[in-house]
Structures are given as C-alpha cells and as structure tokens.
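Working notes for the structural subgroup meeting. M.R. asked for a predicted model of this chain before we commit to crystallization trials. I am recording the input and output together here so anyone reviewing the notebook later can reproduce the run.

Input as submitted:
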Amino acid sequence: QQSPGFKNWVLVSDPNSYPVYYQILVRGQLASTGAVGPGGSATPTFPGKMGGPVEVKSCQAQFGPGGTCSQPANVIASQRVLSGGGSAFNEVPGIPASQLSDHYLWTWYDMLSAGAQDWVLVNNQNSFPIYYELRIAGQLVSSGNVAPGASATPTFPGKMGGPVELQAWTASQPRTPAKVIASQRSIWGPSFEEVPGYPAQSLNSSYVWTWYDQQSAGSTNWVLVANPGGSAVTYKIMIGGGQVAGGSLPPGGRVTPTFPGRMGGPVEVQASGNVVVSQRVLWNGYFNEVLGSP
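Returned structure, recorded in token form:
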C-alpha cells in the first residue's frame, strides 16, 4: 500500500462457533492483532507499507510471548487489492502453511506484450537463508540467496514464454529442499493480477474450469497448457463436452490456443502426463488468470 493508486486489505474471517485471536505480520513485523467473533471479519489496511512475506496466524486463545499459540484456530484469509486508483480489483486467497512447497510452476511469463509488467516473487518465511533458481522455458533467468523474512522480486523485460519454474533449497551446503512462498504479480494496462505458484507435488493430468468466453464483446480468452516434465505428453482441450484442440507437447513445450466466437462450459484439459494449466483472459483491457482445478 505504498505504490501510487494501490489499496490493500488483509481479510481474516472466523467461520467457527467461537471467537479467534489473530496476528498479521509483514516482513516478520507485527502489523495488526485483534479478535474476531464467530461469523465476523477483520479487514485491516496498512497505509505506506510494502513488502513480504505476509503471514496470518490465528489462535483460540490470546497469543503468548513471541506469537506462540497453544490452541490454533482455522480461519479464512485473503488479500484484496484495488489498483489504478480504484479502477481494478484483485483477490488472492492465503496459502495454508502446510501446503507450501520448494518447487512451483506457472504456465506463462509475459513482459513483452504492450502494457505488461510481470514479477516473480520469492518469499522466505523460514528462519534460515534460502537459495532459489528460476527458469522460463527451461532457461535459467534468475538465482540467488534470500535472507530469512526477505523477498526477491525479479522481472525480465522483453521476455515471454513458459513454463515458468521455481525451485528453492537451503543456502547452506549441502543444499536441501526448502519451502517458500511464490507468486507472479502482473500489471497489464490498468489492471493488477496475482497468481500463486502451483506446487509441483500437486500437478495433475486432468483439470477443469467452469467457463470459457471469447464471444462477449471485448473478451479474449486463452487456455494455456505447459509440459514441465522430461517426456512428451498428449493433451486435449474440451469445452461443453466437445473437443476443441489437442496434440502433443514435447518436454518444456506449451500451447496457448484461443477459440474465437465460443462461449460455454465446463472447460477441461486432459493429458497423458502431469501438466500445468491456466486460463488467461483480457476483458476490455483488464487482465485475469485462473489456474485449473484438478
């Protein structure tokens, strides 16, 4: 909430039948704390603050020294962002700490298209330094160490392609896999979008979405399929139960088809091996990306 035109809320909602206490930390520093009643929410903002990682902790009892909690409580948490002075909206769910990975994938990177800016964010929530490597279409584009509670936010002007792959290890020798938080943040014209990395251990050969639309005025809709594996896979894309595209993808290959004039759902990608998939949509100049659900 430091960049011009940005407003950023961290939302904490209590779905339980009892009150919960919460803490929000930004870059390891306590930014907000409080209690939320059953069915209630907290929506704090932190004007002038920028950085990560961002962490939400919740507890059935008040926190002890150093943020300790003897009775953890499940909550719902997300970030909501208004950008462009209020013209564009984005929401990103929090990632449960238990689902963090040392290896993430995305279908695509684009800092070549007009009006596109694209960051890959690596946040180290650990108490030790980590080392990361980032590849786009198999090419190493960034690597380095990230200190505890710090972030790396590289960009690659003029680059476009996929898949995008991030791996992290401890910075010590010998290196061992280290779990981190990772996402892509994109500004496309007036819009802002954030997409969490897809954990490699959760990759699948079949994904679905509810809808496809390249019929509405001002809509362009891509279905992206990327093969991060070491052997070729076959794939097919179906909309409303009928196949609209298919073929073979070599290791590291990807396709980005669109289907002008088509609207409907469900949308399904099936492959002979694990792939990473997403839909990218431009709607009257505003951009959105949704990863496929297994």
